[in-house]
Every structure is written in structure tokens, then in C-alpha cells.
Give the backbone structure.
Amino acid sequence: MKLNIAVLAGDGIGPEVIDQALKVTKAVCERFGHELNYEHGITGACAIDEVGDPYPEATHELCMQSDAVLYGAIGDPKYDNNPKATVRPEQGLLGMRKKLGLYANLRPVVSFPSLIHKSPLRTDLVDGADFMCIRELTGGIYFGDRGRKNDGNTAFDTCIYTREEVERIITLGYEYAMKRNKKLTIVDKANVLESSRLWREIGQEIAPQYPEVETEFMLVDNAAMRIIQWPKSFDVMVTENMFGDILTDEASVITGSMGMLPSASIGVHTSVFEPIHGSYPQAAGKDIANPLATVLSAAMMFEYAFDLMEEGKLIREAVDASLVAEFCTEDIAEGEAKKT
Amino acid sequence: MKLNIAVLAGDGIGPEVIDQALKVTKAVCERFGHELNYEHGITGACAIDEVGDPYPEATHELCMQSDAVLYGAIGDPKYDNNPKATVRPEQGLLGMRKKLGLYANLRPVVSFPSLIHKSPLRTDLVDGADFMCIRELTGGIYFGDRGRKNDGNTAFDTCIYTREEVERIITLGYEYAMKRNKKLTIVDKANVLESSRLWREIGQEIAPQYPEVETEFMLVDNAAMRIIQWPKSFDVMVTENMFGDILTDEASVITGSMGMLPSASIGVHTSVFEPIHGSYPQAAGKDIANPLATVLSAAMMFEYAFDLMEEGKLIREAVDASLVAEFCTEDIAEGEAKKT
Ligand SMILES: CC(C)[C@H](C(=O)O)[C@@H](O)C(=O)O
Ligand SMILES: CC(C)[C@H](C(=O)O)[C@@H](O)C(=O)O
């Protein structure tokens, strides 16, 4: 098979972790006789520095022509405390999501037995946790109208969802639930928000089409508690963009292996595979960044973008083996102080 | 002193827990020679059933004339999965918040040594945790414009904040930080939301007025992780309404004593004191509901509404003593299976 991949390394530790994931990708392609074509594109703070745009048109073209995008991380602290900056690295990420139509962000939350002692939760609560968070990624308050009024003294953002957007993502949730343990938790704030009431209505409409799936509607505040109290009660969770941002990050730390978690963003034009951790600029260049989340993102890429399940499995096994052999970075090494 | 109190018991276990808190309040008033005047008002699902309004005008009048409101809990499952219901118990709560100008919801998160084994977190992470969450309660997406377009197929909600609203709550955050350990964490999503950028700007403007306080700006997704990974890093946290809803509920479970946590909502016209747990209808009438969160809310009432610190302290000591004596409900009893 011929794999055309765009590689966007980004900022901070992005380039380092991408390097390792690329090595793995090349090795797997060699082993299975696939032809790998890849090209690098710039994005994030480094792209602002270079061309004044965090997601330049050339990078977008590259992504559009590729079957999958392997993505590092973006962000630089110099933009963090400057609310008035007009160009920010995050705009590049959001622009990419919108332009590539990356409507579904998938984040498997899985506890690694060898890392369970790193979890902030009691072992019995989290051992065996295995669920999939699906976050809507191109709608909601991230992309609605926003602005200032009243001489800049009033600020607003709009959370907006259309029926098509909600149907698409909830249906995807049911499809994944069918492939897994047949339970779908639809998270909203239907007791307050009109957009959430639309989500709940549509959930109730679609549910009967999947009679084998147990549907659970849950308020976002309740979900935030449940992720800590009873993570094993989840199978597939689906929610809107902003709630998903918060809940998926919350969920990502319960296993104690944040540096291990990959994600896939399924799109209309192509799909993007990236670690869920950030650009971690303090660690850049120190050769301490854990590349396994990016390596596992490459595994998801083989599986989700190319339907090459054997290849994905081989990568996962290699990761497991290196954990067992304790061939790993200090953030997950036995006996190390917990990183926060 | 003369204490004029409105008592809104609400739904589910509300009346039961309020009964106990009232007993304590009466006992304390007797002991200290205060004159207690209290009157009951209806609110929530039971008020819808009785008069078709979850926060009737008569109840509002009662609250306006009182120095403090002791509040139980509201909500009934019969409204949960009916997104098209036009009158919902929650509207009563939101109406009350708006009409009484309850702009600041204060939630102390404190771990009880005798209950630490109930925490879903590892003991070392949570033992000694002690922070105050301040949630803005009358602005943001809870009270902005919302509606449907396009034949009901598009739904929107608006998150809107004015400079005055943000200044008021951030200043309150600094005032509490000054009284505590002089650290304030301002939580927003300034890398995406315009309203958050207004929060961050105003935070940066006010910070220099409190040079003794260490100010930390934190993105909401990061805060959701930090609450689990390092709760002891917080002293005072302040955030907008929706983020506060999610984060305060998340924070409330880390100590394992959800049934123990009180809250105060500081208002322009009066203040409301209530347990943070819900109406828990499954438990109503079974005499198993833990009243201690409501009892501790009464303690906060003495302290915050009447500046009667001794009285508040006495209640806290009584609660601690009853925990040590294991005179408590089954949700916090030693050796019981964890409630979820
Ligand atoms: C960087 C930021 C805009 C982004 C988001 O909020 O979506 C990030 O937090 C994420 O979750 O991918
Ligand atoms: C019942 C609901 C409207 C309310 C809220 O979201 O504010 C509740 O969750 C709370 O936190 O007091």
C-alpha cells in the first residue's frame, strides 16, 4: 500500500516526539512492504515566526493532499498571557480543524497495567478502565460568533449547533458503541442550554435505531464527577466541543499516563493523529519528552486512516514491550516523582 | 442578635436535610441568645406541582425580606429527559440567583481526615487539600441570549460578560486570597474565547493592586487536570459560571465527602446557603440522606451572613465530633461500599 502522510511537528517537544513516531512508522512500512511518502509542513508558533500564520496555506494544501496527518503539538508561552495578541498558535489548530472538517476527536482512555501506580486515583477505581471519548470538534462555542461591544467592555461568544452536526457525531458515537461494549453516554447541559437540548432531542431520536446500545444521558457536571468516581462505568462518551475539551483532559490524567495517550481527529478531507499532551516547551530540547503518545497516534493512523490493523497492533505490542522492559522516559519510570 | 431566615427546602431529600440543619440552627441560637425568625417558602419541582412556578413571587418576596436563605435542593427526574418541557425546576434556581443577585458561589473544598479513605484519589494527593472555589453565578452562558433558528434545527446559547461583572468577582477572589494563603488561580479559556480574554485582561489589571497575592492564570482544561493531579496547589480559584459548574463539581468529589460540602452564594440582596449535593430523589424518605453538608451550610450562614464566627465554629466542631464518634449516615460510615 502507498501511504501519503503530512507531518506537522509544531512547537516545543513536537519535533522530538514526531521524530520518534516517524522512525516507528518507517520501520513498520518497511516490515510490511508499504511505500511511505511523507512531507513536513510548518504550523503553530514557529509558523507565526516564519511566515506570520500558524496554519499557512501551503501547510493546508499539503494536508489536503495527504491521506493522514501526523501532528506533534503547538503552543508557546509567549502567547499565553497576552490576551490582546491578534495572531495566536491556537488559531492555526482551530483553522486546521475547520478547514479539514475534523469533526470528531477520538480519545481512547486506557489504563496501562504497568503504569497504574502513576494514577492519581485509587488503583481499584481505575485498573481496567477502558473507554472512548468522542468530542465534537468543529462546532459549538469554538466556532460561533464572538466579539466585543460597549467599547470593548462587554465580550461574548456564541455556542451554536445545527441538527446535521449533532446527528453526525451522535451517530458516530453509536457506531463506536456497537463496535465496543454497547453503551453510549451522551453528555450535555440540557437543564440550562438550548444547544444541549437540541443534542438531547437528537440523541433521543437516534437511540431507537440502535436498540442494542444502552443510551445514558448525563449532565456535564455529573460527568466531571463520574470520571473520577467511577471511570469504569463508561464505554463510549460523546459530547460537544467545549465540554469535550474539559472532560477529555480530565479523563486523560486518571490513568496516570498522560504522556501515553494518542488521539485521532476524523475529518471530511483527511484525518489527523496527534498525542493529547501539549507542546511542553519547558522540556523541549532536553531529550526527556515521552514519545509514546505520538507513537501510539501513529498506531491509530495505521488503523483508522488505512485500515491496517496488523500494523497498528504491532506498534502497540512494541510499546507494551518497551514498558515491560522499562525502556522509557523518566515521566513514566518506576519510582520517579510524579510530574504535574 | 435577630436572625431573619427564609427556608427553602425544595425537592427530594431537601426537606429532610433542612430539618436537621434547622434543629442545629435553633440550638445554636438558643445557646448564644439569638432570636431566630424563620419562614418556609416553596421552590423547585414541588412548587411547579403546587403553583406552576419553580420560584414563585411569594417565595421571592420572602427571600428579599430575609437576611439569609437556607436552601435544600431541587430537581426531579420527571423533568430530566424531557428537553421540551417548558417549565423546569432548574429555572427556579436560576431565577432565584438572578433576582437575588447571587453573583458569587463559594465552595470550600476541604478534606476531612476521618473520611480520607473515602476519597477516589490517593491519600497523599488529597490529604490536607484545602481550597476555595469561587464561581461567578449570574452571568455567562447561563443568562445570555439563547434560542432556536431554522425551524428549530439550529440552537444557540450566548456567553456574555461585562467588565463590571468580571471586576466584581475577580476582586472578591483577591479578597478571599488575602484572607487565606495569598494565591489566586483565575481559570479561563483565553486561547479560544473572547469572554475569557476579557477575564484575563481584567485579571491582569487588578493583579497589581494585590502585590502580596500570587496570581496564576490557568486554562480550564488544565484546571480540570490539576484538580485531580495536584489539588493541594490551589488556594483560591475563581472562574466563570459554566466552567465553575463543572470544576466545582469535579473538585467536590476528590475529598470523598460530597455529602459533607456546603456552599454560600453571596448576593446583592441576600445570601443563600446550601449543600452542594442535589435532591437525590432515590434516597428521599428513606432516612439515609446525609444532612452534614446542610448543617455545615448553616455554619457558613452564621459566619458569612451574620459575621457570627463563634457560632459557626461550634457547628463545625460538633460535626467533627460526630464524625469521630462515627455517628453518621451510611454514605460516610467506615467500611461501607462507596456510593457513586
Ligand atoms: C489549544 C486549544 C485551542 C485546544 C482546544 O481547546 O481545543 C486544546 O486544548 C485541545 O484540546 O486540543
Ligand atoms: C441545577 C443546575 C441549573 C445548577 C447549575 O448548573 O448551576 C446546578 O448544577 C448547580 O451547580 O447548582
Chain A touches chain B through 68 residues (CB under 8 Å). Residues 14-32 of chain A form the longest helix (19 residues).
